[in-house]
Amino acid sequence: MDSATVTAGSNVIEIFDRMSAIGAHPGQGITRLAASAEDGAARGLFADWMAKGGARIATDAIGNQFACFDWAGEGAGWIFAGSHLDSQPRGGRFDGTLGVLAAGCAALDLDARVRTGGFRPRRNLAVVNWTNEEGARFQPSLTGSAVFSGALPLEEALALEDGAGVALRDALGAIGVTGETGKVPPLPDAYVELHVEQGRILTEAVRRIGVVEGTWAARKITAAWIGRAAHTGPTPMADRRDALLAAAQGITAFEALVAAHYPHLHRSAARLVIEPNSPNVVVERAMVWFELRGLDVAELRNAGAAAIATFEKAARETGTRLEIAADVLRAPAGMDDRLVTLAGETARRCGFEPLSMHSVAGHDAVALQNTGIPSALIFIPSVDGAAHHPDELTRPEDVEAGLTVLTEMLRRLAEGEFHAER
User: Which residues have a Cβ under 8 Å from the Cβ of 80 and sit 6 or more positions away?
Assistant: First the structure.
């Protein structure tokens, strides 16, 4: 970003550059996994920046951070805005982070208006950094927002373990998050999230603002093939039960099946864990994370069943055993119609014709909406659609457009234009 980026509220250029340095490695993007030392540093910077701007900082038991502006006092409703500061391994600097910092800048801008008497809110505002949105270190993703909204029990979330067997509870404790601190706001009347699109639709449509109406469905299958460890040298080929070979056949069959029969679905086999992972030992266990995304739930059911059949075939042909460790179908979600309308009106009021969109990816706004918290998701363009990659980029003029719309929408919500119905 350059000096022309944004001038509203606090200096977003400075804070964005400072945040982007945390977890950054030359040529390898940003690695700022949830509850890591880097995440702890990012949380500290966020809290310090917001506190210096006059916010009251609170943290709940799962580590969600709330920078609170108690404008309307005790008993008034709340508006939330934010995203997440954790990243994927070798990820980009815009995903999540921009949403948190833009919300912070919007809040500081509005707070300045409150202090000068130019803005009289009926609701309080909190800028939120949600814990473990990415799900890169701990699964499932969207952990913090799921716990806050009641979709995931706190103790179950704290017991989640990473690949090294470290529990989320202990990882949070290592960065100083050991329980609730400060007075955490109640469920909000509305939540607004600004996020980079992570696709090319806005760019191709020559639009700067996208208003998300709903999301795609997703089916996530974790398959494990279990074979038998053996020496890679002397063990006769007929005696081998190679789990990695089975996984390779399963991945290849999955790709061919979905491409041929379900071409509209997005598909991936994105993670592979093998045991014992030695160059001289035939693999005994290979676990693969498969994913299918689309709008049609019935199609996902059929495609998932067909995929599992190909996994079973790979097991038979390699003398291994198949286990389905997880199989979750996430239904499509619709965002709050009234907030969708308000976001569109706000964009037009700010001089931008919005594009109605669907999100393929999951976001905290979607997790909250699914539990009855009215939520809005606003997209701004991603250059070349790059996401979860060091090349992530959103142009300064698009950041400015997003911040302008976000600030105006939060002003309208805080003034009481929207009435929650839960």
Answer: 125, 126, 127, 128, 185, 188, 190, 191, 192
Per DSSP, 117 falls in state: T
Nearest in space to 346 (alpha carbons), one of 209, 204, 193 = 209
Taking residue 422's Cβ as centre, other Cβ atoms within 10 Å add up to: 8
Dig out the tokens for 71 from the structure.
């404008």
| Tokens, residue 341 | 């309308």
Q: How do residues 363-403 score in pLDDT, each as one tens digit? A: 999 999 999 999 999 999 999 989 999 999 999 999 999 99
CA–CA separation, 287 vs 280, rounded Å?
Answer: 19
- Tokens 């379900």 identify what position? 262
Using alpha carbons, list the distances in angstroms from residue 250 to 232, 245, 258, 305, 316.
Answer: 21, 9, 12, 13, 11
Nearest-5° angle of CA 256, CA 259, CA 261?
100
Contacts of residue 395, defined as CB under 8 A and 6 or more positions apart, other chains included, come to 381, 383
For residue 330, CA distances in Å to 88, 337, 378 come to 21, 20, 21
Q: Within 89-128, where are the H helices?
A: 97-115
Phi and psi dihedrals of 244, rounded to 5?
A: -70, -40
